[in-house]
Every structure is written in C-alpha cells, then in structure tokens.
C-alpha cells in the first residue's frame, strides 16, 4: 500500500488558495441559469455538462490569448447584482467543500458594469456573496481587485481596493495578456498602493518571460508574482547542478511568493507537462512556491486535484503538501497574527491529524 496522499485524503486537508479568478470558477449550471434569466443567447450550448466540457476544451489550447477568450461567456452572465452575489456565494461554498480554509479570490470590477452597475456596487455585491457563502465558518475569503493591463483604469481600481480594504478586500492585482502590456504602464497605481501601505500581486512570467518578472518586482514593487513560471529561465544547469541567475537568486532570497497554477500553466503553454513543470525544481531549491487553481471551470480542477497531480508527478508526501500550504498562508494579504493563528491553530494540526490517520491505516 502506498503511503502517498490520495485525492480523498487531500480533500480533507486544510488548504490555502491565493490565485483563483471569480469569473473562471463558475458552475456550468449557474451560467446556463443566469444566461436564460438575462437573455444572453451566445452560449455554445445550454446543456451544463456539455458546456463544462466546452470550457475545458476551449481553454486547453496552449495559448494564453485563446485561454482568455473563454471568459467572454462567464463575464457576460456576471452583469447584475443578483448574479454577482450568487457566483461569489457559490465560489466560497465550492472552495470550502474542497477543504480550502482560506482563499483570496480575484476579479476585475471594471468588467461587470455593462448593465449599469457602478464599481462600488460590483464590489459590494461580490463581498456580500462571499459573506453568504462563508457564513458557516468553514472558510475565510479575502478579495483581490484586479485591473486589466490593456485598459487604463488601474489607478481607479487601486483606489477602490484601498477604499474597501477594511470590508473584505485584501489586495490588488493586474491581469490580462502580458505581451505588449508591461506592468510598468501602471506605475501610478502601484506607487499609490505603496503610499497607502496596501498589498498587491502582479501577473508576471506566465505568457511572457523574465523581463515581466523583473519589471513587476524591481519597477512596480510586487509583493507576490502571479504564476512566475518563467523564473526557471534564469536557472542554468551546470553539470547537473542548478545555478541561479541574479533575478532568480533575488526572488528566492527575498522570499517573493510564486502563485503557481500547474494545470492552467499547461493549458496556456507556460509549462510542457506536470512532470516537467518548474514547480518541481523550484520546490527543491526552496523558492516560496504556492499551489493554486487559477480558473477552476476552464481547467476542470480543484485545489485538491492540483495537489494530487503533483503527488503523482513528483511523489510528494504530506510534509511537501503542508510546506506548500504554509507557504501560501505565510504569503496571504491578511495581518500577520491572523496568518499565524491559521497556521498554528488549523493548518498544522489538520495535517498532523491526517498524517496520523494515514500512518495508522
């Protein structure tokens, strides 16, 4: 009998998720329901099972740009207050059902105003949904407000994040196609956030290479890197020994968290396979690696499934999964004492109990 964690066991582990997009995790049934209620008639199919499969196949293209196209349908059904509340509540419930105890879920308010909602109304609806979905106490959800890197509203969204930071918004992010839209275009927003002592992460090193990582850190001052997969390009193999370049060494030395999303990284072409994903080497080299879902609908995944794939590919045991989880909790955008309370009061005891049960089976 293998001592490696099984998927069912991993589901019972107290997990932490830092990189999950609200508009990438809808239930297919909800998309069909809201589309019917709002008159949106552009869905490829109204059969929930077939629609779920369509999203997975459309996203599994090896292109970040094609991957992002799938969001046209999910965003289209998230244009009313009622839909936003429902989607956020279901997100919290689904994550809790998967054993996630703390999550930071991001969304772009500017993408949900087509029917007349203001940015504030969008944020308040999502926060209400998260409160409803987490009221049973199984999960705590923090919200990240995302600005689209190809638009010019990042300062406005940054101010929105600061305005709601005591009400459930814990940070800021920029997302969208990286090529041609460097994070330095949004310096005004990042400098504002730094002056306000606010936290932010930047999508970097996924669809573009080392320059985007360097800019995100050295020009913009990112607290975390969304994906950061291409940091592997700054690690050379010298006669079988990894040799870190100056950027990779800086990222490791400064303990800058990498929000890696294995399945999504395969779909967008950022990694060739799970077994060849840079996460394996980065774990060996003790980078601050975290494991995430990115878009659960498009990737047909859960955080437990992401961990299970890494167990299969790298033979990870409970200590490895706990290491990834503690990394994520250490890197969360909530206060230090609250992070520590979750690590010592919930995460470590939860993993210890699971390891004891496994050793006793």
Automatic annotation (TrEMBL):
According to UniProt, where does the site described as Important for catalytic activity lie? Answer: 227
Give the catalysed reaction(s), semicolon-separated.
Answer: 2'-deoxyadenosine + H2O + H(+) = 2'-deoxyinosine + NH4(+); adenosine + H2O + H(+) = inosine + NH4(+)
Cellular component GO terms, alphabetically?
cytosol
The UniProt note on the cofactor reads as follows: Binds 1 zinc ion per subunit.
**Limits of the Adenosine deaminase domain:** 14-348
| EC id | 3.5.4.4
What single Pfam family name could you report for this chain, choosing any that match? A_deaminase
Chain sites annotated for binding Zn(2+): 19, 21, 203, 294
State its cofactor.
Zn(2+)
InterPro entries, per this entry? A_deaminase (IPR028893), A_deaminase_dom (IPR001365), Ado/ade_deaminase (IPR006330), Metal_Hydrolase (IPR032466)
Positions contributing to substrate binding = 21, 23, 176
What keywords are annotated for this sequence in UniProt? Hydrolase, Metal-binding, Nucleotide metabolism, Zinc
One Gene Ontology molecular-function label: adenosine deaminase activity
> Catalytic center at which residues?
206 (proton donor)
Q: Which GO terms describe its biological process?
A: adenosine catabolic process; hypoxanthine salvage; inosine biosynthetic process; nucleotide metabolic process; purine ribonucleoside monophosphate biosynthetic process
Keyword Ribonucleoprotein in the entry? The reply is: no
Q: Which HAMAP family match?
A: A_deaminase (MF_00540)
NCBIfam families annotated for this entry? aden_deam (TIGR01430), PRK09358.1-2 (NF006847)
What family classification does the UniProt entry report for this protein? Belongs to the metallo-dependent hydrolases superfamily. Adenosine and AMP deaminases family. Adenosine deaminase subfamily.
According to UniProt, the name of this protein is: Adenosine deaminase
The gene coding this protein: add
């Amino acid at each position: 009998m293998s001592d490696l964690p099984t998927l069912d066991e991993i589901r019972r582990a107290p997990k932490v998720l830092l990189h999950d997009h609200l508009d990438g995790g809808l239930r297919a049934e909800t998309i069909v329901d809201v589309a019917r209620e709002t008159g949106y008639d552009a869905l490829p199919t109204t059969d929930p099972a077939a629609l779920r499969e369509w999203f997975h196949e459309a996203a599994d293209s090896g292109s970040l740009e094609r991957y992002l196209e799938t969001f046209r349908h999910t965003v289209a059904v998230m244009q009313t207050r009622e839909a936003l509340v429902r989607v956020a509540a279901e997100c919290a419930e689904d994550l809790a059902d998967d054993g996630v105890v703390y999550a930071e879920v991001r969304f772009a308010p500017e993408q949900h105003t087509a029917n007349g909602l203001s940015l504030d109304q969008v944020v308040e609806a999502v926060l209400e949904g998260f409160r409803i979905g987490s009221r049973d106490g199984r999960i705590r959800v923090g919200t990240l407000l995302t600005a689209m890197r190809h638009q010019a509203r990042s300062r406005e969204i940054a101010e929105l994040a600061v305005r709601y930071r005591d009400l459930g918004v814990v940070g800021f992010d920029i997302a969208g196609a990286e090529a041609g839209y460097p994070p330095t275009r949004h310096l005004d927003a990042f400098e504002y956030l730094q002056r306000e002592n606010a936290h932010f992460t930047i999508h970097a090193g996924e669809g573009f290479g080392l320059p985007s990582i360097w800019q995100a850190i050295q020009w913009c001052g990112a607290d975390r890197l969304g994906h950061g997969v291409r940091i592997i390009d700054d690690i050379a193999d010298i006669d079988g020994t990894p040799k870190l370049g100056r950027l990779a060494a800086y990222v490791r030395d400064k303990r800058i968290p990498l929000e890696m999303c294995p399945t999504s990284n395969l779909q967008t072409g950022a990694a060739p396979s799970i077994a060849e994903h840079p996460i394996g080497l980065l774990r060996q080299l003790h980078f601050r690696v975290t494991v995430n879902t990115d878009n659960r609908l498009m990737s047909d995944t859960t955080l437990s499934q992401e961990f299970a794939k890494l167990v299969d590919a790298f033979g990870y045991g409970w200590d490895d999964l706990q290491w990834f989880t503690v990394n994520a909790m250490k890197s969360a955008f909530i206060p230090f004492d609250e992070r520590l309370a979750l690590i010592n009061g919930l995460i470590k005891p939860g993993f210890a109990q699971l390891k004891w049960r496994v050793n006793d089976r």
